[in-house]
Amino acid sequence: MAEVHFKQGDSVITQGDDGDVLYVVDNGQLDCFKRFSKGADNTYLKTYGPGESFGELALLYNAPRAASIISKTVATCFTLDRATFNHIVRDASMQRRTQFEEFLNKVPVLSTLDQYEKGKIAECLESVRYESGDFVIKEGDHGSQFFLIEEGTAEALKLSSSGQQQVVYKYNSHDYFGELSLLRDEPRAASIRATSALKVAHIDRLAFKRLFGPLENILERNTEKYAKFMKSYGALN
Ligand code: CMP
Ligand code: CMP
Q: Which pLDDT tens digit goes with each residue over 64-105?
């Protein structure tokens, strides 16, 4: 890794250029901007700080730089060249991206995210399989994962005041569950049980908070569907 120093306002990456290094921020802050169509103004996207990296897309996809990076303050970055990147990062990262990107494009709740944001989510997902009848989540437990259904069906169950397990929601492929306890820092509000062979992709709490931040309002608004379902299904609350 080589060390590079930038003054405030330096152009570190220019959208459209060829790229052959990835940057890891050691200190300072750098802003990311993107021009979404030819002739349009640059849109501010985000600020990178120590420990974060950027410039991976050109290396992953052998494509021109997809955004511009300008140093906001004096900054120092480490650079990783293409050969080293290919050797230690590319294969693992690419494998996950290709495994999950097609799936993520079919998940309705993610439709407002761009490919870059979905790619970041893809890198953090892990798949797990369950048999019909298995519990994925138990009501009252501490929540540490968010789930997307890759294949199969499941149901949400809540313990009623009379001690019965009641079905309060039904799930199909491309649905999600397990968001409530992460959004609200509360125990799991229901149990989730597989009703067929089930394959889910899960993401941990920290990555969920970081990557699903832009969707928090949508997820909160969507919780209305639970009350609607219970009403139509005749489940007692
Ligand atoms: P790369 O295309 O190599 O160079 C510009 C970098 O900006 C890109 O890699 C990403 O690391 C980063 N970036 C951040 N947000 C986005 C975005 N929404 N679209 C494209 N690139 C982005
Ligand atoms: P969470 O509380 O993290 O874990 C259980 C999940 O069940 C919950 O997030 C929701 O995703 C889902 N769920 C489905 N129906 C309901 C419901 N009626 N009330 C609460 N959670 C529900």
A: 999 999 999 999 999 999 999 988 888 888 888 888 999 999
pLDDT 10s digits, 113-169: 988 999 999 999 999 999 999 999 999 999 999 999 999 999 999 999 888 999 999
> Considering only CA atoms, which of 87, 119, 89, 117 is closest in space to residue 102?
119
Our answer on whether the CB atom of 55 is closer than 6 Å to any ligand 1 atom is yes
Q: Which two tokens stand for residue 200?
A: 């889910």
Q: Is the pTM of this model over 0.90?
A: no
- Placement of tokens 């293409």 in the chain: 82
- Give the residue whose CA is nearest to atom 7 of ligand 2: 190
Report how far residue 121's alpha carbon sits from residue 123's, in angstroms, rounded to the nearest whole number.
5
Q: Report CA(186)–ligand 2 centroid distance (Å).
A: 11
| Atom nearest to 146 CA in ligand 2 | 3
